[in-house]
Amino acid sequence: MSRFSFFTERPIEKYKKADTALVILTFLLWGIGMVTLYFCSSGFGQRAFGNSLHFVERQLISSAVGFAALFFFASIKFDAVRKLLPMIVFGAIILCLLTFIPGIGVERNGARRWIKIPYFSTFQPSEAIKFALVLFLANFFDKQERIVLEEDKTVFPAFFGLIVFSGVVFAQQDFSTGLFVFLLGLVMFFVSGAKLSWFIPFSCLAIPAVFLMVLLKPYRVDRLIGFFSPESYSQTINYQTMAANRAISAGGFWGQGIGTGLTRINSIPEVQSDYVFAGWVEAMGLLGVILYLAVLGMFAWRTYYCSLTCSDRFAALTTFGFATCLVAQSLANIAVVGGVIPTTGIPLPFFSSGGSSIIFTLAMCGFMINASRLENVELVESNEYKTEELMYE
Length: 393
What we know:
Helix content: 55-70%
Distance between the termini: 45 Å
């Protein structure tokens, strides 16, 4: 089968100002997320910790670290990122392995997904894995593109890296995130120009492996059964989903309004985490859903546009991967809250409470903002030529 690539050879880069729309959309999503987290978590924060701002305060501290990462990756040269890549990759893997060390890793419900941070909270290394995977694959495929002889090109190191990255997440008993990491890697393979024929034998091995991992854990099977029979498990495994549906229904078209004593979200356990979008819908209604999807759509448009017009192939591939990571997570989370797909445990970027999530979300945005400063010279010159041609006409 033939080989193709969305990102072919790029001309010498030309710097410009960062994409203003992308910067505005990043801060807008963060701001909406913070407001939503505030009115969704205040009740639970008061009951559990005696502080209605408990989750907001922690999110602000994590956001400060995240914005530092944003400004760092928005200003650093891409060659410097490549030099830091070994440290980023091995650091992410080591952090995942630390979850298995007693006293450092935190076990909840049989899963080891977190690292204990003294005097503050916990850290989830799988968020670092998403960040490192995209950088690793983008760097690898950029180097492969520069190899002249077709027979010298290979994807096996990239496949091995993908197995390692997704494997350490699966080992933490985080099936949904591990599967997401694996699929994200396949998207990177696809857009980078890997031969389509390589996907066939790999899929023949991966698909049965996924079904086997589902069947090995009874609670995963229960989630699937509960998804197809929601009413039968409304008080057990589907309790959060059913409570989220009631909150969404209560929102109507216009919503209940922010700060008007929302009641439905209080029935959702830990609503500040994976089901925070249900609180947004109860407060803002269908109009709020439309507004959020419009902002997310514009965010996707600007990030993918920056990726497809960026003159540096490494930056273009990385931007595409980061954009896909954030947009796919957002759509997956909304689908879970709406009961369209089974519960996954994937957070909603910018909204869900979680320090590691917001830190790496903002770091990804910083890299994409940096990439938006590099434009395709051929595209620019072509547009300038067309403009001059129209002027003379």
